[in-house]
Amino acid sequence: MSGSKSPIKNQTISENNLSGENESSPFVYASLTNNLSYLQSLFQNCPDVVFKPYVVESTSTCLIYLNGFVNDESIPLQVIKKLLSKDFMEQYDLSHLEERMYTTPINETNEMNKVVSEVLNGHSVVLIDERDKALIFKTKGGAYRQVSEPSSESVIRGSKDGFIENISTNIVLIRQKIRSPRLKIIQKKLGTQTQTSVALVYLDHLVNQEILKELQKRLDLIDIDGILESEYVEEFIEDSPLSPFPQIQNTERPDTSVASLLEGRITILLDGVPSVLIVPTTFWQLLQSSEDYYHRFYFSTFIRIIRYFSVLITLLLPAMYIALSTYQIELIPTDMLLTLMASHEKVPLPALLEAITMEVTFEALREAGVRLPRLVGQTVSILGAIVIGTAAVQAGIVSAPMVIVTSLTGIAASIIPKANIADTLRLLRFPLMVLAGFLGLFGISIGMVLLGSHLCSLKSFKTPFMTPFAPLSIRQQKDVLARVPWWFMRQPQNKDASPYRLFKRRRSNR
Fold first, then answer.
1. Residues 167 and 197 sit within 8 Å (Cβ to Cβ)
2. Which neighbouring-strand residues pair with 27?
3. Which of 281, 310, 330 is a domain's end point?
4. How far are the Cα atoms of 36, 332, 341, 387 from residue 30, in angstroms, in the given order?
5. Is residue 288 assigned to a domain?
6. Which stretches of 109-239 are DSSP H helices?
7. Pairing of strands 134-137, 49-56
8. Same domain for 450 and 318
9. Is 107 exposed, middle or buried (0-12, 13-18, 19+ CB in 10 A)?
10. Are residues 128 and 156 in the same domain?
11. Collapsing DSSP states into helix, strand and coil, what is residue 252?
12. Which DSSP state fits 76?
């Protein structure tokens, strides 16, 4: 069937109709010819939209679907042959057809916009002559990659599954871990052109209803043509979009998402995106890993301490080196000072320019390693750093201690589990280096005061970003700097079930 202009008068479809913003949408007419003329004119120059005409019991029908989303060979078997029911053609009994379809869900609609939306979502639609309703068959398929371990959040111990680009599969991964009717899902569409499916997942007895309403309000205010990644949504809904610190956590791991749901948080899933967003978020969440809870609490606490020191090294080590080697020389031990002076003897650049040059070079090598093919990217970045560092020292452009400082800073940034907060700390070290180059340790102190004030002023969906330290809450610090045992994290209602008494009971039962 070739596309032609629709004979239907005064019925045009606009972007508002497709996005569901206009309530006055065209309806499905009893004439199959008019319906097909309208749809073919709408899908003109869309060869992936397939129109298959059939004659069933002397009645003309047409099957419409999106090629690639549905298996062409299975559609006639699943859909058309099920329509070979004389009783259905006479009575149009949807429940009777569902019984014959066995497993395929069926809906019907008389709105043409609904027909268009379902076809674009990958479902099959059947139009029947002399019937003013269309049948929608949930036959969505398509090519999706298999569930596998996310490369950005790999763990030694724990589940190896990760989210993929199919939102239905991602919801199933969460359902497999929380098999409770209290797990609720709110679905939305974002993007006037992409019509991206969005799902808000939460536990209704744990979630803060005010935060849930605020989240829905912010999502409804998003006005954009398309949503291609979760960062699009993140920038629209976070409290302080101009802040360099991410106020929303993202993860590709279902167990991390489920753990947040059990804490009363909300998970935002987007179709076509393998990572999900978690709100509200605190600063300390961004420094924690799911593997912290899969090891004994002694080791997890030790790793967290190393991680927090890595944050300080990433942020302050180059600035401290610049301040001490330029202004506060008297704070350096004599033997180390002589070594530093000897290494700087042939270097023409001041410490500030030397540090900025090395840090920018290291960041460029890191970016090159990411963009190059995976088989050679890591090798090129490592060898490039070694070769360039060695050549720069031998040429007298930079000093050997500066190469060591840059290397330690890069290693420390790699220890931070969340890439978004690691990127922020890598970026913030440059203004601290400038302050150290002009004001020494006093400049670093000013930068840290400003940084701390900014962190304490941030909120994530009305939740203070530095909770539980600002405001201070002793009870909530059982899982921040240290990871205490599970039985000590409990907050029971009665005193007999307090962590201390549980511990004494365990000792007495031995």
1. yes
2. 111
3. 281
4. 11, 89, 90, 75
5. no
6. 112-120, 167-175, 209-220, 230-237
7. unpaired
8. yes
9. middle
10. no
11. coil
12. I
Same domain? For 204 and 240 the reply is yes
pLDDT > 90: what percent of the chain?
34
Q: Among the residues of 3-55, which ranges form H helices?
A: 15-19, 32-42
Nearest Cα residue to 270 out of 257, 261, 284: 257
Within a 10 A sphere around the Cβ of 235, how many other Cβ atoms? 12
pTM for the whole structure? 0.80
3-state secondary structure of 482: coil
Note the pLDDT tens digit of each residue in 80-133.
656 655 555 555 555 555 555 545 677 888 889 889 988 888 888 888 888 888
112 shares a domain with 50: yes
Q: Which amino acid is at 230?
A: S
Q: For residue 72, what are the contacts with CB-CB under 8 A and spacing of at least 6?
A: 50
Q: Which amino acid, 144?
A: Y
Judged against a pLDDT cut of 70, whether residue 505 lies above it is answered with: no
Range of the domain at 434: 295-464
For 60-77, the pLDDT digits (tens) are: 888 898 887 776 655 655
- Classify residue 293 by burial, with Cβ atoms within 10 Å: 0-12, 13-18, 19+: middle
Residue 317 in domain = yes
Two tokens, residue 358: 């090395």
Tally of domains within the chain: 4
Per-residue burial over 400-433, b = 16 or more CB atoms within 10 Å of its CB, e = otherwise: bbbbebbebbbebbebbbbeebbebbbebbbebb
